[in-house]
Design brief:
It is built from seven helices and six strands. By secondary structure, the chain is α/β, with parallel strands linked by helices. Strands 3-4-2-1-5-6 form a six-stranded parallel sheet, sandwiched between helices. Helix 4 links the parallel strand 3 and strand 4.
Length: 245
């Protein structure tokens, strides 16, 4: 049963709904192996589940969904698996271009795209441009992303600007140099698959995020499972360093 209903504007906070959810898409390979399938098949099911969860977030009024799809460390995986993921990404982007007018979900990619093939880079730019006019949920896909790498790159860009302008640095100013510069920090970070760590995901942005872990593998993470995470979140009191009353 769906426990949250779509609301308008900021009123979703009153109903216990976070504005921004971030999810580590973990467990695709293990899910496939448990079913006697190749690991690459799990990534295909995981990609389809991302579309399902994105639509559900739009339906209930979540404003931002950020997912960890491929990290800077994932290049260490077997070449066949990496190639399969890149081919799957290309397939997903082609389908996204075809279905975007129907889904009307704004897509944005966070990470270092420079190492991707020129074809993929072009497709990513096209998808971002087409979806930029859509309202509702914004789905951010972290691709070739690592939080430490993001912070280092942000520090380098700041140092270059400081050398030229001498502008002072504070937390708010530094955040403008991150990939997520125009996106609010996540209220809730979810990790399926039974692992209990952030794995270099949004470490700056998630400083005060609520965390939710589940044993469910990502391809089995249904809207009902998301409801469980949202229900848990709705009972928490965010203090931001203050005292509990």
């Amino acid at each position: 049963m769906k426990i949250f209903k779509k609301t308008d504007g900021e009123s979703n906070v009153i109903n216990g709904l976070p504005r921004h959810i971030a999810i580590i898409l973990d467990g695709n390979g293990r899910w496939a192996q448990k079913k006697g399938m190749p690991r690459t098949a799990g990534h295909s099911y995981g990609a389809e589940n991302f579309r399902t969860i994105s639509k559900y977030c739009k339906e209930i009024g979540i404003k931002y969904l950020t997912v960890y799809a491929f990290s800077t460390e994932n290049w260490k995986r077997p070449k066949a698996e990496v190639d399969a993921i890149m081919n799957l990404l290309e397939k997903y982007l082609l389908e996204a271009i075809e279905k975007m007018e129907n889904d009307r979900i704004k897509l944005k990619f966070l990470g270092d795209m420079s190492v991707l093939s020129p074809k993929l880079q072009k497709m990513i730019s096209e998808v971002e441009e087409i979806s930029s006019r859509y309202d509702g949920v914004q789905a951010n896909i972290c691709l070739n992303y690592g939080s430490r790498d993001e912070i280092v790159k942000a520090a380098i860009r700041y140092a270059e600007d400081y050398k030229a302008t001498g502008k002072a640095l504070n937390e708010e100013e530094f955040s403008r140099y991150l990939y997520s510069c125009d996106i609010p920090d996540p209220d809730l970070v979810i990790r399926p698959s039974g692992e209990y760590r952030l794995s270099n995901f949004l470490m700056w942005q998630s400083a005060y995020s609520e965390l939710y872990f589940t044993e469910v593998l990502w391809p089995d993470f249904t809207p009902e499972e998301l409801d469980k995470a949202l229900e848990s979140y709705s009972h928490r009191k965010r203090l931001y360093g203050g005292l509990r009353k």
